[in-house]
Specification:
Blueprint lengths: L7 H40 L5 H6 L7 E8 L5 E8 L2 E12 L5 E10 L16 E8 L18 E3 L4 H8 L3 E8 L17 H35 L7
Parallel strand pairs: 2-6, 4-7
Antiparallel strand pairs: 1-3, 1-5, 2-3, 3-4, 5-7
Helix pairs in contact: 1-4
Length: 242
């Protein structure tokens, strides 16, 4: 291809950027597949019958397992998980210790989302009294474990930024399950429409298309200007010396 002369610098730029753009595109495709598998697994587990608390304790992979609970809430040690947004409105998620009467195990139960329009006034909530029968599912956050914040402050309820159940049980001097359990819809629950993943597979596919489009545009420009430069060089009059 004598007419194709892209030049050294454009060639080096394309050789450096093209693999990066393609790699980002394939990485987004892989993330989309991971999210699809995660959503499918979560749906399958959350459609299954709830298990006993003992089965949850023995499970090596407890995420999204439904579990039957029978016991009572500890209303004296409530936690407000801050900066939770629903429908563009600010709010909190209410978490409370729950003692399972069958196993004696303490559990941290997330009762759902509450609006908090005025931060000068604490969110209003009520706690059902007496023994309750509930169904919840185990939530395991992706990535690094969360760290409980503001747990050394005096007074309850306490406002926290992130959840670490092990830190809570240590603070309260109790033996408890190091998992967050999220209530299903029911009399003891507030708003419980949690998303399984923050970003769905379709978002990752959209990003993959963008990266591949940038790669195609870069390669297309490389070919276009290389051919153009080659034609310009071929059209230059040659100088001959006798």
């Amino acid at each position: 291809m004598s007419a194709f002369r892209p030049g050294l610098v454009p060639t080096l730029v394309v050789l450096a950027l093209l693999p990066v753009l393609l790699g980002l595109g394939f990485w987004q495709l892989a993330r989309a597949e991971e999210k699809r598998q995660l959503l499918a697994a979560a749906d399958a587990r959350r459609l299954a019958s709830p298990v006993a608390i003992e089965q949850l304790l023995a499970s090596p992979a407890p995420a999204y397992l439904r579990v039957r609970l029978r016991g009572h809430f500890d209303a004296a040690h409530s936690l407000f998980l801050d900066s939770r947004i629903r429908d563009g409105k600010a709010g909190i998620e209410l978490l409370q210790p729950f003692q399972d009467s069958t196993s004696g195990q303490w559990l941290l139960v997330n009762r759902g989302w509450l609006p908090w329009p005025d931060r000068r006034v604490a969110p209003a909530f009520t706690t059902p009294a007496g023994e309750l029968e509930l169904v919840a599912w185990a939530y395991v956050p992706p990535g690094a474990a969360f760290e409980l914040k503001h747990l050394e402050a005096s007074g309850w309820p306490q406002l926290i930024n992130q959840v670490d159940t092990a830190g809570l049980w240590q603070h309260l001097g109790r033996s408890g399950l190091p998992l967050e359990l999220r209530l299903e819809e029911g009399a003891a629950a507030y708003r419980t429409d949690w998303a399984v993943v923050a970003m769905g597979p379709e978002k990752h596919l959209g990003y993959a298309v963008q990266w591949f489009a940038l790669a195609a545009a870069l390669f297309g420009l490389f070919i276009y200007f290389g051919l153009r430069k080659g034609r310009e060089n071929n059209n230059e009059p040659s100088t001959r010396h006798a």
